[in-house]
Design brief:
42% helix, alpha/beta, Rossmann fold, 7-stranded parallel sheet, elongated, 388 residues, 18 helices
Length: 388
């Protein structure tokens, strides 16, 4: 502690895949409270190739490097991480998930007697088809110093693989809630113009999702079709691209309600708040999702969320009747009825909106950063630098 008071910060390396934009505010705080560096496996994301990473990174102050290496069948292989760690000489390493870069980082930590922690958002559901790999996961868990779980669901999963519950800290995966709220406020005055431009009706349901079979958007469309037969003043706004988009559009045409559904396509992260600002209710119908940061984005926008029980974040973020509801998207009739009840009861909708906005304060990036540093036994450092 004496070294800390003299201004020395613990050297921390966070080994992470590509720079996922909404995770960067957390890493920015963590790196600023330590002598931290981000070591990214790659600049381009397999899942999000359209991200403008260079522009996004300009918003942050942390040091970072991109690792040279290669990719085989969407798997990044970066043995160079070992040499970058050797160059930087961190005292603590946080590696994300159980990938090859984590294994390389583990060997570095053990050879040079450094502490290594694993950050994860994996759940029993996301890893259900990876039975052979669970042996490796158990081995890494047994030999790691601790864990940072992005949800309580992930914590339960890590413990089922042998992690000591006392060594697993939940640091909710989140966004810069305060900055998000400010941006939403700026866009709120443009609400009517944006709605008119997109040809949206009086009430707007929003879904931000990749158009993949496991995202459950087809169930949402089926539920919305049921509602659209009795409600004329409602639109469904879908944001995202993917291989299922054409089939989903075809379904809307065949059922004759495409005029009430807007497929907005891919939207850059810097522009996405506009669409939250013009909406009334957010629906997250995923059948498979480790977490679901869009849920926090929605809550921070003052939107109640109908959140799939298959989302890793569901039971941490949503309180039934307060800021939304946890649903089973496969139960289309129940989902239809719930949407109808909310959208035809203005008092109920407004109460849920207030609850959504208030609940977002529980999931700020500052709180997540404090838990992150607590997980790696640096909470005293965090408190010192926060108060200095």
């Amino acid at each position: 502690m004496e070294d800390i008071l003299k201004g020395k910060k613990i050297r921390l390396a966070i080994v992470h895949p590509s720079p996922y934009p909404v995770k960067l505010p957390l890493f920015d705080i963590v790196c600023s409270k330590t002598d931290g560096i981000m070591i990214f496996s790659t600049k381009d994301s397999v899942d999000h190739p359209k991200w403008n990473i260079d522009e996004i990174l300009k918003q942050f102050t942390f040091k970072y490097v991109f690792l040279p290496g290669f990719r085989i069948k969407k798997i990044d292989i970066r043995p160079s991480v070992f040499f970058y760690l050797l160059r930087y000489k961190p005292e603590v390493i946080v590696a994300t998930e159980f990938n090859l870069q984590t294994i390389f980082s583990y060997f570095y930590a053990k050879i040079f007697n450094k502490r290594i922690f694993i950050q994860s958002n994996a759940t029993d559901q996301t890893d259900s088809s990876l039975k052979r790999r669970k042996t490796l996961r158990r081995w890494l868990i047994k030999h790691s110093d601790g864990f940072i779980a992005n949800s309580s669901n992930t914590k339960n999963y890590l413990c089922s693989l042998g992690a000591n519950p006392k060594k697993v800290t939940v640091s909710i995966q989140t966004i810069d809630v305060h900055k998000w709220k400010r941006t939403i406020g700026e866009y709120s005055c443009l609400r009517e113009k944006l709605r008119e431009k997109l040809n949206l009706k009086e009430k707007v349901l929003l879904c931000v999702s990749r158009m993949q079979p496991w995202k459950g958007v087809d169930f949402l469309l089926e539920a919305f079709y049921n509602i659209s037969k009795t409600l004329d003043n409602i639109s469904l706004l879908l944001i995202g691209e993917g291989p299922e988009k054409q089939n989903l559009e075809k379904y809307c045409i065949e059922k004759g309600f495409l005029d009430k559904v807007q497929f907005a396509g891919y939207i850059q992260p810097s522009e996405i708040q506009k669409y939250y600002a013009i909406s009334d209710l957010f629906i997250f119908p995923t059948l498979y999702d480790p977490f679901g940061l869009v849920v926090i984005e929605a809550l921070s926008s003052g939107l109640p969320v109908l959140c799939s029980k298959y989302a890793g974040s569901a039971f941490d973020l949503i309180k039934d009747g307060e800021n939304g509801y946890i649903i089973d998207p496969k139960d289309v009739n129940k989902m239809s009825n719930l949407i109808y009840e909310i959208m035809t009861n203005e008092n109920r909708l407004q109460k849920l909106k207030i609850g959504a906005l208030e609940s977002a304060n529980n999931f700020t990036v500052e709180k997540s950063a404090e838990n992150f540093l607590k997980a790696i036994k640096l909470d005293t450092i965090y408190k010192y630098f926060t108060n200095s």
